[in-house]
């Protein structure tokens, strides 16, 4: 059942690095992460890799396997031919720390720039009432395991360091959509999505959706609807006015 | 590429930070504690070994138990308290179980105000699902990814607090800062009280010290000492070991929960969890003869509560008020032992498990909706489509009931300034934890620890213990030790780790015997020697074999605690099953085994009496039930003995 595979793993840090060849034993049912662990137990004790759950739930083990952004714990070895070279490299969009581990702080910075859930005024804990159909849209986005594969793949930032400042990336634009669709969120988010978080950079290529291990329809269900809301808002004077009036009304209520 | 480095070349610089409260651990317990400490105006640091948002809590699937009564209005805190005590075989710290049952609903509702989106009932409330040992549907959930929802919500709440601070001060990290990928290896005391802690940044390998009068341990469990486990690499018992070395005590370490349903095939995923929701939602267990064997394993204490025929069990799913529950939903220890016995008797599956089948019980659409991540997990990792075929499952080391002995109300350990919450604390779950009671435990006692730590800091009135510089220097040397031994040619830490796991798995596993445990203790001594001389390759930058070399020390100390306590307790109860003492013994119920450190790498154990349960809590149960667990003289305060109280 078991065979020897040819692994080629990127070793190095932010200064320098190289692809190193390793022969590696593979047993039935194993995934790429198992092989990396076996290398640690044998000839590459100090090979750096992130992982936690080994079941596709934590989003730690993101890397590029034969050039494709993937979770190493969910990439079965039987998806490769036995004589195929398996090349494992760190995520390209983020700076390397060591071997397969990259500096993902970009994502934490972006997360902090998105205004948080704004709870409805006057609704006490325990009094929240929402229908299942209404929460389902946001729930789809909350399946996100923050593996950053979409952030790594999106061409807006993949080879364009200069866009990182202005663009939140698919995961965090989706976060805005999630809050915008939350039945009880009381903030206005659409304009900021466009003006502050770079929604306009997205040209709906769907590359993010393709790599999402949670199969979240990022582009179709989050980004496009968010763009439509922004557009409606800009060009439909009635919607625009409606929103304004509604918000004023709300503000007036608060003052009373 | 890798070279040996001489320890004298190492950079011993230590970055120093000052905080009011330092929380070690960024799972549910740690994050909730930090939110509370910050709410009480304390400058708070959160430290975690993995990235922010990846702690073990993220893996929890089934749900969070809280008697909100949304699915069945008969539910209330008393019923939840009763279920928790029963599940723990009445060895629980009753005060913790009481606080937990009373406060869990409030903590869950609070999560909604932070932005959590739980699944809903028809009338728009939080939906609640059935789980083993819970009388009513009680688990708030989001499909089968409840832990992810919990941790993300708490993470986002912390971000929102940082945004508030940014507005006020221009600095996101003015009052609450997350130091992720940072491992704490030592705690410091001065004049008997907590003064700070020490560790390293994983990415650079450089050192950091936190001066703080209050530390909350929220480091989770110990499962990585076992070969078959649902736990991740983080579960090396760091908090347990740090507490011991700082002079605190551990209780209940003999009680480990082996979850009945872990994956058994393929080998590389052996141990990965199959959520109990599969059974809660209708999944049944069968042996290789196709028999629903759980009906044969209903212990006497549970006879009145569980269905005795398949027909009654099936009716329960639609009419829970008039039928008894299916025995698949017995507490986990019962189900795990039953599976173990079936496999031993030769009625197991080809890969040494039993069948768990939901495909014959629910429509494919239902399965996809209620158990999406289980469907995904089996499809991707085992080529099994759970809407069409049964799964193969067997027991896996899942949760440690034992942990730091704390004051129930404040979470403080025996060491002033040292607190513990979540899986690394002990007492709440007694000898066996009910599913769903951990996530609620994290929220209830995380918050209480945050409050307790804040109050403690206030009580110091500015008189903060100062870290002793020689202690700080010793911590640096201890952390660098594996590099020193490297020059002398020791073993690969990964190899020593495998040996430790094998020892615990085979000799102090689900079914225990005195001679095997004695052998385990001997082997542990030998492994301890090997651990002291493991050699690491490479430098200090994100170096997993160095990290493991340091974690090994903790795993060893904790394994020693488990083996010693398990050998001492001569009865079977909850997560502790003795082949040589197969029955539960009321004379052991009121005894706690308390462990403390003996030097740096050994432990000693004493027996301690439990505090008798308050009479009003005793009254929640019928006398007949209590008699199955308690000795006669312990029940004097019950209403039946006093004439019914008003
Ligand atoms: C697969 C699975 C499913 C589960 N499902 C459920 C469920 O449905 N319901 C339920 O109630 N319970 C469930 N549990 C149990 C529950 O998830 C855990 O008990 C709980 O999440 C533990 O939370 P915690 O806050 O105590 O610790 P964790 O979430 O484990 O966090 C521990 C934290 O401590 C940090 N840490 C550890 N050591 C150090 C150190 N030395 N220095 C710095 N940081 C450190 C870690 O990095 C981490 O951030 C499940 C467990 C598993 C494994
Ligand atoms: S759809 Fe938008 S966000 Fe997604 S990859 Fe394409 S450009 Fe990037
Ligand atoms: S949206 Fe999908 S790909 Fe992007 S971070 Fe979340 S889980 Fe990963
Ligand atoms: S290890 Fe958690 S997603 Fe791979």
Automatic annotation (TrEMBL), chain A:
Example of a GO cellular component annotation carried by this entry: plasma membrane
Record keywords: 2Fe-2S, 4Fe-4S, Iron, Iron-sulfur, Metal-binding, Oxidoreductase
Domain 2Fe-2S ferredoxin-type: 5-92
Record GO biological process: respiratory electron transport chain; tricarboxylic acid cycle
PROSITE patterns linked to this entry: 2FE2S_FER_1, 2FE2S_FER_2
Functional pathway: Carbohydrate metabolism; tricarboxylic acid cycle
Residues annotated as transmembrane: none
A Pfam family annotated for this UniProt entry: Fer4_8
Cofactors, names only: [3Fe-4S] cluster; [2Fe-2S] cluster; [4Fe-4S] cluster
Gene Ontology MF terms: 2 iron, 2 sulfur cluster binding; 4 iron, 4 sulfur cluster binding; electron transfer activity; metal ion binding; oxidoreductase activity
Xref: NCBIfam families: dhsB, PRK12386.1
Name the UniProt record assigns to this protein: Succinate dehydrogenase/fumarate reductase iron-sulfur subunit
Organism of origin: Pseudonocardia sulfidoxydans NBRC 16205
Gene: sdhB
